[in-house]
Amino acid sequence: MSDLAQVSDGEAEQFGQRIYARLVRFMYILVGVIAPVAWIFYGWAFALFFVIGFALAILNFYWLKRTLEALVDRTVSSPDVKPSSAGVIARLLLRYVLIAVAAYVIFNSSAMSAYGLFAGLCLPVGAIMMEAAYQASRELWRRL
């Protein structure tokens, strides 16, 4: 029997919460390291909009977590009632509309600012890569 089949729902939820907390921590670490370096090499505008992009990314990450939790809770709590997908899709679209509006306003002011915004929006990817490296190294050490 696989290890996944032996994990209870509570353990899986705690595991997910720990991963989420690490991802957020990794994003803060990345912005703390990259923003000062970006300021030195690309100027204050790039660094400022990099931090704004990070703020949008972390807000989007939080909203996505809340949306998924609500969807799972509705699905698991009452299997007879199918959850409405309209609200979930509306919130998903609202997130991307807000990001698009911010990008449009910033892009009209300065291309370098837009680059900073888009770089900040990519921080979750870096955090996910750090989490993957963490999980791989943890598993390697466990097997040694």
Supply the key terms.
144 residues; mainly alpha; 5 helices; 0% strand
Describe the structure in brief.
With 144 residues, the protein is mostly helical. It contains five helices and no strands. It has a domain at 42-75 and 83-144.
Structure description:
The chain has 144 residues and is an all-alpha fold. The chain has helices spanning 9-42, 44-77, 85-109, 111-121, 123-143. The model has no long low-confidence stretch (mean pLDDT 82).
Explain the layout of strands and helices.
Blueprint: H1 9-42, H2 44-77, H3 85-109, H4 111-121, H5 123-143
Helix pairs in contact: 1-2, 1-5, 2-3, 2-4, 3-4
The arrangement of helices and strands along the chain is HHHHH
The helix content, as a percent range, equals over 70%
How large is the count of helical segments? 5
What is the terminal-to-terminal distance?
22 Å
**Which parts are unreliable, with pLDDT below 50 for 5 consecutive residues or more?**
none
Largest sheet geometry: none
